[in-house]
Design brief:
The protein has 374 residues and is of the alpha+beta class. The protein folds into two domains: 4-172, Aminopeptidase, CATH 3.40.630; 176-365, Gcn5-related N-acetyltransferase (GNAT) (Aminopeptidase), CATH 3.40.630. 35% of the residues lie in helices and 26% in strands. The chain has 13 helices and 14 strands. Strands 1, 2, 3, 4, 5, 6, 7, 8, 9, 10, 11, 12, 13 and 14 form a 14-stranded mixed sheet that branches. Strand 4 (88-96), helix 4 (100-116) and strand 5 (121-124) form a beta-alpha-beta unit. Helix 6 (185-197) crosses helix 12 (320-335) and helix 10 packs antiparallel against helix 11. The two termini are 25 Å apart.
Length: 374
């Protein structure tokens, strides 16, 4: 196929960039459209504090008839590169039709951008931050992704391999079946950890009650994720972005904030009712009726998605995970939850995976990021 690649420079082109996967996968029963307005905000410097430490460009690929056949973003996270001493350019938001000319044209373009920026390594798919969807799905094509994952066709993997990319890290997702009665060992372990370390659950009963703890939550997050692959410390502005993104959808039944005797946050966990089916019905837009599907999913659901668990470095391996899961268990029992889906986590994150070792669970999806020296 004869392909031309053009940089995205206008609002119209940005809309097309965000909309393209919804066209590519419009008939796929496992594809979950992202909310397009939110995706556009993420990619707009004036609306995303990640641009305080990142820069990037986006491109669309067109065929001879002018139809869009692919997209890709190139991102340089200066803060992460300064932290690690590396010269990495990330590629993300990558989607394309099953044509080698298209994928090569896109990756050649983003690699050239990387060289112009003085980078010597490509890594991705990744976003600006650790909280943007990362990885190419390499297993689990017949499973519905979580709202914070991403679907892609099986051919993506081979295209990247053929272009010289090799595995960097894998992310895994688990489906955990909630038993009729949650084993008492979780509550017993949580109590023992609480007594031994003088810890307790932060007392809140609504979203407003969370506010006094949020600064501590983000301090804990920065501490816990400091050595995590692809992570750089969140700025106050980036923390504000995450608050806006998640707080409106929070159900306090699925939030655990563990504090010490001085009311300092030492660990937390956040889960949300699954939004995947609601987002399929919304078809990429909250209006006119997409928000109704989302609201219904937040109120009536048998599945929750485990979004984040973070424990301050000083309290690692002291069983704080048990206290977090015990709080989740109370909400799960109260609301009749039948399934828990873990969102993408590094495959060697055994501290979190051990949470459900006593429950019926299956590894259902695997996503991979790739790396290449250029």
């Amino acid at each position: 196929m004869k392909v031309s690649v053009k940089e995205v420079t206008t609002k119209k082109e940005l809309k097309a960039f965000v909309h393209f996967p919804n066209v590519l996968y419009k008939d796929n029963e496992y594809y979950v459209p992202q909310i397009e307005s939110m995706d556009r905000d993420t990619l707009t410097p004036s609306k995303n504090h990640a641009f305080e430490v990142c820069e990037g460009k986006y491109w669309l690929a067109y065929d001879e008839q002018g139809a869009i056949v692919g997209r890709v973003a190139g991102i340089v996270n200066r803060k992460y590169n300064e932290k690690t001493g590396e010269k990495i350019c990330r590629f993300g938001w990558i989607d394309f039709v099953d044509d080698r000319d298209v994928s090569k044209a896109l990756m050649d373009t983003v690699e050239q951008y990387a060289r112009e920026k003085g980078m010597d390594t490509m890594s991705g798919p990744m976003g600006f931050l650790e909280f943007d969807a990362a990885g190419v799905l390499v297993d689990g094509y017949d499973k519905l992704p979580t709202a914070y994952g991403k679907y892609n066709a099986p051919y993506y993997e081979q295209h990247l391999v053929d272009l010289g990319y090799v595995k960097d890290v894998d992310y895994v997702e688990y489906l955990i079946k909630v038993p009729d009665v949650i084993p008492e060992r979780y509550a017993r372990m949580a109590e023992l950890v609480s007594i031994k370390n003088s810890l307790h659950q932060a007392p809140f009963h609504n979203r407003a009650g969370l506010e006094p703890y949020l600064d501590g939550v983000f301090r804990c997050l920065n501490s816990a994720y400091d050595k995590l692959h692809g992570f750089s410390e969140l700025s106050p502005g980036q923390c504000d972005d995450l608050k806006k993104q998640f707080l409106a959808n929070i159900n306090v039944d699925y939030v655990s904030i563990v504090v010490d005797a001085d009311e300092q946050v030492v660990g937390f966990g956040v889960a949300l009712p699954s939004l995947s089916k609601a987002m399929q019905k919304a078809k990429g837009s909250l209006f006119p009726f997409g928000w109704l599907h989302m609201l219904k999913a937040l109120r009536q659901n048998d599945t929750i998605d485990l979004l984040l668990i973070a424990i301050d470095e000083k309290y690692k391996n002291k069983g704080v995970n048990a206290m977090i899961f015990d709080k989740f268990a109370q909400g799960i029992t109260k609301n009749g939850i039948k399934y828990i889906e873990s969102t993408r986590e590094l495959e060697d994150n055994t501290s979190v995976q051990n949470l459900w070792r006593y429950l019926d669970h299956d590894l259902t999806k695997r996503a991979r990021t790739y790396i290449k020296r250029i």
